[in-house]
Write a structure and sequence with these properties.
2 domains, OB fold (Dihydrolipoamide Acetyltransferase, E2P), BirA Bifunctional Protein, domain 2, 432 residues, 13 helices, eight-stranded mixed β-sheet, alpha+beta
Amino acid sequence: MGDKATRIEALQQAIGGEVLLEGWLYNRRSSGKIEFLQVRDGSGTVQCVAVKSELPEEIFARCAAVTQESAVRVRGTVREDKRSPSGVELTLKELEVVSESRDYPITPKEHGPDFLLNHRHLWIRSPRQHAVLRIRHTLVQACRDFLDRDGFILADAPIFTPAACEGTTTLFETDYFGEKAYLTQSGQLYNEATAMAFGKSYCFGPTFRAEKSKTRRHLIEFWMVEPEVAYAKLDDVMQLIERFLEYAVGRVLESRRPELTLLGRDVAALERVKAPFPRLSYDDAVKILKEKGQPFEDGNDFGGTDETILTEGFDRPFFVHRFPAAVKAFYMKRDPQDERLSLSCDLLAPEGYGEIVGGGEREESLERLEARIAEHQLPMTAFEWYLDLRRYGTVPHAGFGMGIERTLTWICGLEHVRETIPFPRLLHRMHP
């Protein structure tokens, strides 16, 4: 077959014409004299109808024998079909089997999560996973577009780092030509350097946490977008988070409603994501937990169950701010009104999903930052470059980090974060 292939997503513009499709057979059913071939090409799925009386015997026999996930090239005429999810179907004229697939393991039936994760390289071909990953694409694109249009400069942070950012207990250590190095937990510290150079900067990349957790909210490797702003305070960064998330969710609603519908997502819940978001102090959040009978020790960080309980009273994302300094990173600025507290905030997604954004003001004082590094028993020499930012033109500054996968889990209404990344890295799972 010659000619350039048409993408399935563009078939609406080709009604009445003849097209060539290049893709894979998703499914096939037969009525004896008619074969119904579901063909996918990555942009969508369309039904191709092969009528025995209208085709050469060889081509119809090929249609009747083609197997699931065989690679195919199909030629036919595009017809409008309002009953079809794509709005069209193809009257098949020619079929070429490019490569045959035998005994495809993921058949159109129920499979357990372990089986599907073992076959993740094939599972991502399924409609549900396809929808999630298309929404992920749009979310990532929206994040970049918002920051680019808002004057931020993309300045990605390194993956190998000489020291901890978020605490020493969740570090992946590796050998860097005879030196100890660690996989990054966050681009935070490097963002502060680029923000001092450009005023507004962000990084976007993978981060790694060696947490021995099996909860539905945790991945070992995940992606974060992390903006940082010079001359910004805590309130400034909370307002930035509001605008940022409202825009990103709006883009998903605008571009991915069919995918959200396929997932069974209640889009009304997403339509309520409008700034300003409610704000709770940490102390007020603790009161809510205790009123609801949740055993919680004041001064601790919130666990997953605590966050789930807190979300029960909200129909949109909300902030919890001014956490105890003891549960936040060494670089977080203390509240001048109460030294026990930090100028920090977490944004919690409703419907039980919990934290999706963490941010706050950074300590700009050289002396106080040196004291915090010593308190946390971190190696001062590894942070000399970071301390230089306080020696040479220090200013108040603030920023946040948003986990793409947790945010996507909430947007899609999923039960587990593992479906939000093409190849999840979980505790005791590194394959495929």
